[in-house]
Specification:
The chain has 171 residues and is mostly beta strands. The protein is 5% helix and 30% strand. The chain is globular and about 40 Å long.
């Protein structure tokens, strides 16, 4: 079976099947079921809000548990005062990031959207500012408002009972 596709509009060629929007205006049943590796899905989105009057900087984005944890977050990423940053990951492993403010405040967080169990997130530090989140569904949206108390934890998407994981704990 020929799995190739050549776009008459762009002249680009592709091998394999993909989503309708990417390849064809008339997808086959087969093309709706198979998505190639180059079109991986976003597993989680995290929004970090900086309510401070100074910038915050990502000081660590830990990918110990995954080969490429973050799609668009690296150490040195800055969120300006009063602004938010939105970052994504295609990983279903545990991923971590740490933010620091100009006054030496440190905000560590961990999150995951695994394929075989519930979504989880935690503010490893008490004022990382994790907001309530959905334990099921993909992609999951996590929100952290830095400098505020965590409102959820690793085992509870709607309340904080203090359940956290250690920085870099892959399992």
């Amino acid at each position: 079976m020929d799995t190739g596709y050549h776009s008459k509009k762009t002249g680009l060629a592709c091998t394999g099947y993909a989503k309708q929007e990417a390849l064809s205006e008339k997808p086959t049943e087969q093309s709706r079921k198979i998505i190639p590796d180059f079109m991986s899905e976003t597993r989680l989105t995290v929004t970090i809000t900086n309510p401070f009057s100074t910038p915050v900087t990502c000081s660590q984005s830990n990918d110990v548990c995954s080969n490429s944890a973050w799609d668009n977050l690296t150490p040195g990423t800055v969120i300006q005062p009063g602004a938010s940053g939105t970052f994504t990951s295609q990983s279903n492993d545990r991923i971590f990031c740490e933010w620091t403010d100009a006054n030496g405040g440190v905000f560590q967080m961990a999150m995951t959207s695994p394929k075989s169990s519930s979504n989880s997130a935690c503010g490893i530090t008490p004022r990382a500012g994790l907001q309530a989140y959905e334990r099921h569904g993909t992609p999951v949206d996590f929100t952290f408002i830095l400098g505020t108390a965590n409102k959820a934890d690793w085992d509870n998407g709607s309340e904080n009972q203090g359940n956290i994981i250690a920085w870099g704990a892959c399992s």
